[in-house]
Amino acid sequence: MDDFLKNDVVIDDTTLRDGEQTAGVVFSRGEKLAIARMLDSIGVRELECGIPAMGKTEQDTIRALVDMGLNARLITWNRAVVPDIKASIECGISAVDISLPVSDIMILHKIRKDREAVKEQLKTALGFAKQHDLYVSVGGEDASRADSGFLVELMLIALQMGADRFRFCDTLGILDPFAMYEKVKALRNAVPDLDIEVHTHNDLGMATANAIAGIRAGARFVNTTVNGLGERAGNAALEEVVMGLKLACGIDTGIDTHRFCEISRFVGNASRRPVPPWKPVVGEKVFSHESGLHADGVIKNPFNYEIFDPSEVGLKRYLVLGKHSGTSALMERCREIGIIISKQEAVSLMECVRTAAQENKRPLDDSDLLNIFTERHYAADGSAQ
Asked: How far is 307 from 67, CA to CA, in rounded Å?
């Protein structure tokens, strides 16, 4: 049994492993240490930190992570073979994920073996890992396409040999949340004494939903990456999963979310994958309001149109002045730059604002607004003379 409370949800962030497997992404050692330090500081309790079998450079970085003395448990990814596990041990690691294909298509067409060979491979690798007192997650690659009965067989072997959990991988991102729930629930019922971890991919845009569905079905561990980095379309995003669990499910992971924006930007820069302005939870523009009715509602009470305060993730609210804006937003934006106008003046200015937005095909910034106000003010003064 691990040190975590039995029924709490544990984030195992894999930005440093699966996140870096995003095609074309490479983190420097300094960037990896910085990302690990930030994730540790906000309370992420497990970090999948790399693949020792890749060679000396990777091993040196993992040793540096171990030497940091983080509160988070460090776990490495390994093929379910003894040499990989040995490489992890030599890095000072005490927790490993040992992964092997479990779907018939991968067993036949990737490793060109059969189910019995997979079971024997698991026994050999797991036996070696437990002989060295390692914490072990057995990773079922392509579990979402595997035969459920075979998965139960593997989980029972894992349980009997002392594995600490089983990773259910939707490797190709093919499940919908309902199917994820049903599959994880069935495994939870079949082998109730072995913790389940869910690892989801975003090929159909459902990684976050599937991660949360797996947790709702009884999984206790969930893999995430900052900004949803990962193979192909990516993995479940840390910021989305944490806030989704908190707000949609009432499950608090204990993670301090106030630095989400900072961490998101850092990883975006390090990965050279800028964060889209509309990215859920941490996108620069997700707390922007333009529609007149929405802006008016937010001004009166932010919870009319915002499910949480932007400061919870390190962002700020922004009222956009554009084609669809109303007078409430215009008056508020003017107030923010030190100009007090009446409702009647706002109505008069609104036509100019909308015209400018349509002509320029963009919202107005503060300088645009100040120019319009100044021109109108001078025009009014001139007409009065």
From this structure: 40
